Amino acid sequence: MSALALDAEALYQELLQGVRSLCKADTRLVGITSGGAWLAERLHGDLALPGESGRVSSVMHRDDYAQRGLSAGGQTHLPFEVDGADIVLLDDVLYTGRTIRAVINEIFDYGRPARVQLAVLVDRGGRQLPVEADFAAARVALPETQSLALARDASGNFSFEVENKA
Known about the structure:
Layout: H1 8-22, E1 27-32, H2 35-46, E2 54-56, H3 65-68, E3 86-94, H4 98-110, E4 115-123, E5 135-139, E6 146-152, E7 158-164
Parallel strand pairs: 1-2, 1-3, 3-4, 4-5
Antiparallel strand pairs: 6-7
């Protein structure tokens, strides 16, 4: 069995081009804690967008909250008016769709955006809900026994970690 090797920095460049094509003059970037928030922060700077990017946590709306409880992840911070906003939601890895459902519920707790589009670094398939990314830099197949997570080093460079689940 060969090991999966993904160049996260090369995929980031693909994501940058894809997000650029999704953005309008007033688009706001919102990243899902934590990998998506890292992406939104870097994209925001690379696209020279005004203001700051937002971040959203899925914790309070997860359907497995009873098992997972509160995590140490960041809290939601949306530094703009959500009502009527054009939002590009960013995540590192799209898998079952349950996190996306949870963060959309969280966003709607803050207001009613005009539009929410989804851009991801990697779509690994395995959907349990009818969620599809408007842009995915890569599509890969991984067995259910493995997880894929984005990592960021001290200088802000991205890499992927593939782990076997116990």
